[in-house]
Amino acid sequence: MNLRAYRSEIQWTVVVVVLAVLAAIALWPRDHEQRSGPAAAPPPAEQVDPQQRSAAALQPCPSGTGGPAELAGTTVQCQADGKPADLAGAVSGGPTLINLWATWCVPCRTELPALQAYSTEPGAIRVLGVQVDSGPAEGLDLLRALGVHFPNVHDGDNRARAALRAPNVLPVSFVVTASGEVRRIDPPVAFESPHEVRAAVERTLGGQ
């Protein structure tokens, strides 16, 4: 084989290798893009025994249209029936207290019954619990044990937590005003009585 033929063979070999690499890249799975893209779907909801939901006896999740712009498109799982719920719609139509909690959070176990007692008082605004960082089945068991029945949703992928820009502490609560403004209750301390809840809500609403 002369030198010219040898060089030609090497050149064709390089071309074939380059084309093969480009084809492999084109067919490479794009799992990362699918997970991190803006249109990424939420992970499948954990399956919970319907009898467990029935035993918890939670009130149905509220629904509506509109709501705070920062919560638009935030899908959570209603703990009463396991169906997807739109967080913005759930807090639309009137003032709402949003409470973030987890099963492992010790202060939450004191606060949840206080919120339940407040939710049944005359003049109380709507209360919506958002369970984070723990499984829905665990959450249902805890709510049943504590006698908590106000509506609750499960935030399995932290979308609600991110949309609310919640601090890395639990429990933490927010008040959604009648006009759709989201206000955090500060300081984020655990409520121990319905009186404390009412005082914090009135202070945060500021007469609105």
Automatic annotation (TrEMBL):
Gene3D superfamilies cross-referenced by the UniProt entry: Glutaredoxin
Residue ranges crossing the lipid bilayer per the database entry: 12-29
Entry keyword Cytoplasm: no
Subcellular locations according to the entry: Cell envelope
Region listing for Disordered, in residue ranges: 33-70
Keywords: Cytochrome c-type biogenesis, Disulfide bond, Membrane, Redox-active center, Signal-anchor, Transmembrane, Transmembrane helix
Domain Thioredoxin, chain residue ranges per copy: 55-206
Family matches, as SUPFAM superfamilies: Thioredoxin-like
InterPro entries attached to this UniProt entry: AhpC/TSA, Thioredoxin-like_sf, Thioredoxin_CS, Thioredoxin_domain, Thioredoxin_ResA/DsbE_sf
PANTHER family in alphabetical order: THIOL:DISULFIDE INTERCHANGE PROTEIN DSBE
Protein name: TlpA disulfide reductase family protein
Organism: Saccharopolyspora mangrovi
